[in-house]
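Hi P.,

Sorry for the delay on this. The queue was packed all week, but I finally got your sequence through. Input first:
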Amino acid sequence: HWKIRVIDLESLASWPIQELFTLPSDADGNPYVYREQQWHQQELVPVRYNQQEETLYKTGGVYVVIGGAGGIGEVWSEYVIRMYEAKVIWIGRREKDANIQAKIDRLASIGPTPSYIMADATDQEELYQAYEEIKQQYGPIHGIVHSAIVLLDKSLANMEEERFRAGLRVKVDV
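Then the structure:
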């Protein structure tokens, strides 16, 4: 029957000690955050926007997807191929295999056929060679998507440091 408050305070600011004990508890465990002498708490609010006709995507544009043959890259590629007839180039560490080719063939049935370049995007030289190849074959690049991910199937609390570093490295080193 405890009533718990999670409070995040600035380390170098003066703390409102009296207020700490008067804040109501949050049944969901959401924290209170104290910044610049103000309390804040997480809140989900609906966002309404007027759909705009403008887009940053270019019809027929060239888009590079690091980790494109993975699930996120494939779904995003399908979207831009379908909606913008985009030319999509996937960069991946794996050799092009039957699974990757099947994904390429499926997407080719709805628009321009994606290309696949085998390169380790964390290796600056390999990434530069891929860039040169893309520029030579397609011209200007209109966008880059980083969809590479290492699935380690563990929660952070149960992950050894080296596994965490491996998962983070694929994002940070690129």
